[in-house]
Design a protein that fits this description.
It is built from 14 helices and 15 strands. Helix content is 35%, strand content 17%. Helix 6 packs across helix 7 (178-189) and helix 11 crosses helix 12. The strands form 2 sheets. It has an 8-stranded mixed β-sheet with strand order 3-2-1-4-5-6-14-15, with helices on both faces. 45% of the residues are buried. The protein is of the alpha/beta class and 365 residues long. The chain starts with a strand and ends in a 6-residue tail after the last helix. Bound molecules: nicotinamide-adenine-dinucleotide.
Length: 365
């Protein structure tokens, strides 16, 4: 199979969907790999490394789309790429169709096969291709929070871990899923005083057994959140109700109960955010202040740490790409139920009901 990997052209997207290591494995199994010139540069991979692994370097994006049977990417195609996608071509990438009608219509019209990372399922209905990015964002949330708590960055001027004789900062994490747990581990490791809240008691029980003693598990409700706000330095929003908008656990009025210079990192911004005053920002201009509270609401946090994110992502996606390359997408999805769940659009027909419902479009039976 001919597999093509274009350079990401979305703003500030530095990841690449295929590493030289993955390229080597594909080439050894008899596949042809086309890499767009410079595709791996921002993740630390040179064209020479891909060539050594057996790839062909293609000078432009048009050349990759024109020849590849399968395109492997990180983010959804942007408008410039719509016309490059060919009928019958397989695209394996994050799409998040429900958030964009133009993208959905363009992919329907292209008659390509769209296999979306975000809907591939694993055991117990897990989403194995979303988990690694949640891990990155959760860990990064504490790093970013620590930075913006510093005075020159506008924060209160407090060190997360304190020092001997000086108490540490207080961190409140809303949601104890993948993002929340990774954030709790990092904040606890830096010796902050951490409170993590969730409505899932089993999850809280599990974390009570596994997280260190400087993390307190608390049931999430308005009363308990309000009690924490006046004494919290850093808040991390990590709530998810699958398929729904995130609930606003902190309203605008509640900001008044927080101290000036408190930092909020709302990782759940891609689902609308769990703080009412959250709106998406970019890595170029990540923060804004409302009522004295610093808001960091970057919707693609992992894009800032591409060396880590590319490996975390490709470790998870590559086994699926191998199946697609070795068997062809039709057999691979027929034999692997979890991979089949990734099919969103097939040759002009929407096959995932959630995508069709989002735009009142028909779903293929
Ligand atoms: N901004 C970014 O770059 C970025 C990157 C990765 C993930 N995310 C987003 O972060 C969010 C969390 O992702 P995840 O993988 O941790 O999800 P997850 O499903 O693993 O965890 C979500 C948790 O929220 C809990 N929850 C639901 N309602 C709650 C409530 N009222 N109070 C407290 N907890 C509640 C759930 O019980 C669950 O444990 C998602 O919106 C995800 O898309 C953003």
């Amino acid at each position: 199979m001919i597999i093509g990997c274009p350079k990401e052209i979305k703003n500030n997207e530095n990841r690449v969907a295929l590493t030289p290591g993955g390229t080597l494995d594909l080439v050894r199994r008899g596949h042809e790999v086309l890499i767009q010139q410079g595709a791996g540069a921002n993740s630390g991979y040179t064209d020479e490394e891909y060539i050594e692994s057996g790839a062909t370097i293609v000078p432009d994006i048009e050349g990759v789309y024109a020849r590849a049977e399968t395109i492997v990417k990180v983010k959804e195609p942007i408008e410039y790429e719509y016309k490059l996608v060919r009928e019958g071509q397989l695209l394996f990438t994050y799409f998040h169709f429900a958030s964009s009608r133009p993208l959905t219509e363009a992919m329907v019209n292209s008659k390509a096969i769209c296999l979306a990372y975000e809907t591939v399922t694993g055991p117990k209905n897990s989403l194995p291709l979303l988990v690694p990015m949640s891990e990155v964002a959760g860990r990064m949330a504490v790093q970013e929070g620590a930075k913006y708590l510093e005075k020159p960055a506008g924060g209160r001027g407090i060190l997360l871990g304190g020092v001997a004789g000086v108490p540490p900062a207080r961190v409140l994490i809303l949601g104890a899923g993948i993002v929340g747990t990774e954030a709790a581990k990092m904040a606890a490791g830096l010796r902050a005083n951490v409170t993590i809240m969730d409505i899932n008691l089993d999850r809280l029980r599990h974390l009570a057994d596994t997280l260190p003693a400087n993390v307190t598990m608390v049931f999430s409700n308005e009363y308990n959140i309000r009690r924490e706000l006046p004494r919290t330095d850093l808040i991390i929003g990590a709530v998810l109700i699958p398929g729904a908008k995130a609930p606003h656990l902190i309203t605008r009025q509640m900001l008044g109960e927080m101290r000036d210079g408190t930092v909020v990192i709302d990782v759940a911004v891609d689902q609308g955010g769990c703080i009412e005053t959250c709106h998406p920002t970019t890595h170029e201009d990540p923060t804004y202040v409302v009522d004295g509270v610093i808001h960091y609401c970057v919707a693609n946090m992992p894009g800032a740490v591409p060396f880590t994110s590319t490996l975390a992502l490709t470790n998870a996606t590559f086994p699926y790409l191998l199946q697609i390359a070795d068997k062809g997408w039709e057999r691979a999805t027929a034999e692997n139920e979890g991979l089949r769940a990734g099919l969103n659009i097939v040759r002009g027909e929407i096959v995932l009901p959630e995508v069709a419902e989002a735009f009142g479009m028909p779903v293929a039976s």
